């Protein structure tokens, strides 16, 4: 079952492993994670749950619950939609809208909602209904799609085999990040940055340095995609404009030579046929 309870970003756990040069790059991730962590603090026992689209949602009741003839337990969505009901000494009931997708477990009165869709996002509460309603569990459920894959490429390389400047581009479906790094045989450092902000602010999208690699990371609370390039001025090469012109010129001359040769062969064959006809 894929879901994250409490708002945490898995990649934040590795921030301490980054080099000093990458710390600046990771400020956004740290700030983003800290903000979500503060939001995840239980206020009136509210808990955030992130679940991947199409997966199953599992909600528990952590308090001790006792039902009697005058007290039922309801799972509700957005206060007004009844999902399921537990009654005293009777089988659990799943209401029509959730029939076939919701399952109940009597031991701890937990709720499982299968194959969640985006419209399943909302506030889920477990309520004891008797002489007075009592809320005993509350969740803020957020259904997310997995993030799109990333494509990290080297746009250009300038300098020598000992020291060079790498211009890299990392792109997703709807956004991109451009970075330049000055590298030598020992390390790299960022020289400039130009970033277009991702349209989806519920995810983190960044390029940073880690050990001998330039990495691009795209993640949210339910998925993670990344790509990396090992920085090496000797091995990373991008054809220059002059090189491309030279290649194009060579190819053009080769094709022209082939064309001339075909014309000569064709003409010779025609002359031979003409002489044979005259004889």
UniProtKB/TrEMBL annotation:
It is found in: Membrane. The keyword DNA-binding does not apply. Its main location: membrane. GO terms for cellular component: membrane. InterPro entries: CD2/SLAM_rcpt, Ig-like_dom_sf, Ig-like_fold. Keywords: Glycoprotein, Membrane, Signal, Transmembrane, Transmembrane helix. This is Uncharacterized LOC102083231.
